[in-house]
Design goal:
Blueprint lengths: L1 H30 L7 H12 L9 E3 L3 E5 H5 L6 E2 L22 E5 L2 E4 H18 L4 E4 L4 H10 L17 E5 L12 H9 L5 E5 L4 H4 L4 E7 L4 H8 L3 H4 L8 E4 L2 E6 L5 E5 L3 E7 L5 E7 L8
Parallel strand pairs: 3-13
Antiparallel strand pairs: 1-10, 2-12, 4-5, 6-7, 7-9, 8-9, 10-11, 11-14, 13-14
Helix pairs in contact: 4-6
Length: 307
């Protein structure tokens, strides 16, 4: 009888827990949406998302033959590598100088807004996929801002805006989005917002300020703020569940790592040189705005990548 009593008691506890979880889920789904700013539901969704574990050991270190090139020549387009700027880190610690933008190709994206051409091409693909896969139409609410525009915004809204030079919107690769009726924190309440959170890395974008990343970004959860870093970097960051600040520390300086059909290296270039694999495939080099560079190599199909 005692064993039966203990068994029934355990069963009752399990049922009670299940009922509580079901009630909590229903409350999150229906009750918390009463917050017109979406703060509560946004936090709840962020907490749930933060419970997912990041993947480890998805990068494989590779030893390859390298050739040294002056960083200055690479960024001037004098080598086989293509200079780009998609992996700039821009924050309060590493502000971006306005003159750095002279080599970034910008384009009009409508409503008087501009964005880096490469980022915009991938953003259009993301928008089209969102419409097809979840039915929501995504809308751009903010794109590139000049130094003066950011300075004026900071003066008028110091509680929410950041100082000129420290905003990602000044690099040309950041964009704020919404769906009809669901902007800012409410964005994650929409089908499009949740779809974007789960799928934007397919198109080279990351949620720049994830809920779990506040300690490193020093910015609260912003599910509407997308940052283009390109492929495969967005996918790696998303799978590892880290922030852009964390990403540079994933790589040991100067070493190359394989991810699918790509080789990646983070180099500080203390000697003024960047070490590239020769005749391996398409090579892109982006400064990190911290004095270093990220090298991304798309490996030629059918070619051995290591020795």
């Amino acid at each position: 009888m005692k064993n039966m009593t203990k068994g029934k008691r355990a069963l009752c506890i399990v049922l009670a827990v299940l009922i509580l979880l079901f009630a909590s889920a229903a409350f999150v789904q229906f009750g918390l949406k009463k917050d017109i700013y979406g703060k509560t539901i946004c936090t709840a969704y962020g907490i749930i998302g933060s419970m997912k574990r990041g993947e480890k050991n998805i990068l494989l270190e590779k030893e390859i033959a390298l050739v040294a090139y002056p960083a200055e020549d690479i960024m001037a387009g004098k080598t086989m590598a293509k200079p780009e700027f998609t992996l700039w880190l821009v924050n309060a610690t590493y502000p971006l100088a306005e003159e750095e933008l002279k080599n970034v190709n910008m384009c009009e994206i409508g409503n008087g807004r501009t964005l880096c051409t490469e980022a915009y091409e991938n953003l259009k693909a993301l928008f089209a996929a969102a419409k097809e896969e979840c039915g929501d139409e995504l809308i751009v609410t903010s794109g590139f801002r000049t130094h003066d525009e950011q300075a004026a915004l900071y003066v008028s809204m110091p509680a929410v805006a950041v100082e000129a030079g420290t905003s990602e919107h000044q690099c040309g690769f950041a964009v704020d989005v919404k769906t009809s009726g669901y902007g800012q924190r409410r964005f994650v309440m929409s089908r499009g917002g949740r779809w974007t959170d789960e799928n934007c890395s397919r198109f080279g974008f990351i949620i720049r300020y994830p809920f779990y990343g506040k300690k490193t970004t020093m910015v609260t959860y912003e599910p509407w703020h997308l940052r283009y870093v390109g492929y495969p970097h967005a996918e790696i960051i998303s799978r590892m569940r880290i922030t852009l600040e964390d990403y540079y520390g994933v790589f040991e300086n100067g070493k190359y790592y394989e991810y699918g059909d790509y080789l990646i290296s983070h180099q500080t270039s203390d000697d003024g040189l960047i070490y590239l694999p020769e005749n391996m495939g398409d090579i892109k080099v982006s400064p990190d705005n911290m004095g270093g560079y990220i090298v991304t190599v798309k490996i030629k199909i059918g070619r051995a990548s290591c020795r």
